[in-house]
Specification:
This protein has one domain. Helix content is 24%, strand content 17%. The chain is built from two helices and seven strands. The strands form three sheets. It has a three-stranded antiparallel beta sheet, with no helix packed on it. A two-stranded parallel sheet has the order 4-7. The protein has a two-stranded antiparallel sheet with strand order 5-6.
């Protein structure tokens, strides 16, 4: 575990929760009916993603894939607040490493900052 991750866990900044059930107009809804406002969800899928748990969100196509657009093909076309890190054909050289995936993560961060500044 990287030191910054360990430190965040030790100070209680990392919390594990079940996935939300659906997107709402302003955020997400949880299984108990509560809603929470969010600007973006970054879902780290991995290389051989199991996407079944994302079906209730309405983003998985009939062919079992998620159509993407935007920065490096990481934004879900059907839900613009959903970003998929580690998914799709864009992954490229060294994306199985922290350095490789870090490049794409940085691109997503920049795109999110740009989109919130324009609001």
């Amino acid at each position: 575990m990287l030191p910054p991750v360990r430190e965040a866990r030790e100070r209680g900044a990392l919390k594990s929760v079940r996935p939300f059930e659906r997107f709402t107009e302003d955020g997400v809804a949880w299984a108990d009916g509560t809603e929470e406002p969010i600007d973006a969800v970054i879902w780290c899928t991995g290389f051989g993603p199991a996407l079944g748990h994302l079906r209730p969100l309405g983003v998985v196509e009939s062919d079992g894939r998620i159509e993407t657009t935007g920065v490096a093909g990481t934004r879900a076309a059907g839900e613009p607040r959903l970003w998929l890190l580690g998914y799709g054909d864009w992954t490229g050289y060294a994306s199985a490493t922290l350095i490789g995936v870090g490049r794409t993560a940085e691109e997503i961060r920049e795109a999110l900052e740009d989109s919130t500044e324009s609001v």
